[in-house]
Amino acid sequence: xxxxxxxxxxxxxxxxxxxxxxxxxxxxxxxxxxxxxxxxxxxxxxxxxxxxxxxxxxxxxxxxxxxxxxxxxxxxxxxxxxxxxxxxxxxxxxxxxxxxxxxxxxxxxxxxxxxxxxxxxxxxxxxxxxxxxxxxxxxxxxxxxxxxxxxxxxxxxxxxxxxxxxxxxxxxxxxxxxxxxxxxxxxxxxxxxxxxxxxxxxxxxxxxxxxxxxxxxxxxxxxxxxxxxxxxxxxxxxxxxxxxxxxxxxxxxxxxxxxxxxxxxxxxxxxxxxxxxxxxxxxxxxxxxxxxxxxxxxxxxxxxxxxxxxxxxxxxxxxxxxxxxxxxxxxxxxxxxxxxxxxxxxxxxxxxxxxxxxxxxxxxxxxxxxxx
Length: 372
Description:
Mg(2+) binds at residues 198, 250. This protein is an alpha/beta fold.
């Protein structure tokens, strides 16, 4: 299993980059230069650690070889990214994925070939470097655009700038979560639990209905599939503050997988599950049972499954972490039998206030309705 360290000092990151450079230099001396790195995570190259309830990457090593025509371009690009990463860490500067692309893109004289054509290339090479030196990109000062927000009575502090703020005092939009939160210190938290909401519109609804104040909640919206910064913040809130975490998504295979990613990690980033996954989060809804309990079908507040939905249900139902759960298998079967799915927004068929005043409080009062 590939392991990553949660805290890496500036010196440790630089040492890892230098070690990679030394290994390549020595390989040149022996006539066979290569870059060794863990193979990218996919369904065939991951394993489910049932004891810890997370997805991990198998210990399978690949390589980029300088004298392999199929590898030489990626080899060169990896060295460019490693060199830039070293400079960023040394100067204590950060660069976005887009800035890295423009920093590295240029035309090689005589050959008249660009080092990088599209940003997708540089993004993939950054992931290669992560796997080569066993450090996440934020640790070598490369970041993505932030996405997601947090609202509630929680104090955060920027250790670099010294700024401190309460996330309930920044207006209804809360605080925008950046892609890296390693320099953010979590201070006093006056709340009983964290509620992670898939959609920004539902996040806004709950704030408007004053759900955080009434229920003692910290709200986080992932705005769809949660990016690294959001997942890392959820992980830290659970680990550092011991707050229960509930996930609230649409009742469809895509929402169920969002929950799975928050809980167990993603296949694509399975090497980072120890840093990003939060194994003891609970799923508060939407469930297929909600369709019956709240008469959503009678109110026309459901959506017919399409072929893409059906294919995805069958896929995730066979993932080992879902396959072992009778409760989740029942949800999948019921969804297929009914041929329908349900969105968070469907609760508005009862009233705009229903989700904050009735649905979520009822779930919290009846833990048997919550899935794990």
